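Troubleshooting log. The previous structure file for this entry was overwritten by mistake, so regenerating from the original sequence record. Sequence copied from the archived sheet and checked twice against the printout by T.R.
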Amino acid sequence: MKKALVVLAIIIAATFSWFAYLSLDADKRDQDAAQVPLITVMEILHASDLQEGVKQAVKDGNIEAVDSWMAQARKVGQAANLSSEDMNYLTSETAKEYVIFNAKRQLYNEAFEARYYALEEVETLKEQYPEAKDLFPRTDALIEKRDAIIQQIAVAISGSEQPDEAALKEAREQWLVQAGK
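Regenerated output below.
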């Protein structure tokens, strides 16, 4: 009987200990969750106002404005209680280069779109924005499709599979009218 009481007391003590451990563990998890930042570094660096500001600064060649935008990003990081590692990244040259890189890619996309619809060349644009080199095959494919559409319009105008220069010119003019240029 004494043995049974000792075993029962051990089981009860172990059960209470287990519940106490779970309670403390849950409290620790709640405290850790409360310290999670409200925003991440990447969310800060991809915020639309920061991206637009940096893009305009890069377009204007104004590095001081980029520095000002990065200072604002650091203020947001501090307000969001980012970790010291994340704050170090926000103050790094790497973060600045990252936002400049993204801005140049956005500038390439915008300039490409304008040139695409205006039937202008893009080779000088590619030289200007090598940061977008992974986009070049896609933009080249879009230009090929555009040119094929213009060729189809010229074929329809001329009624011949080999349209003459006048039909091609008319097809380009129709493209420009449709593109709103």
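The chain has a mean pLDDT of 87. Archived copy saved in two places this time.
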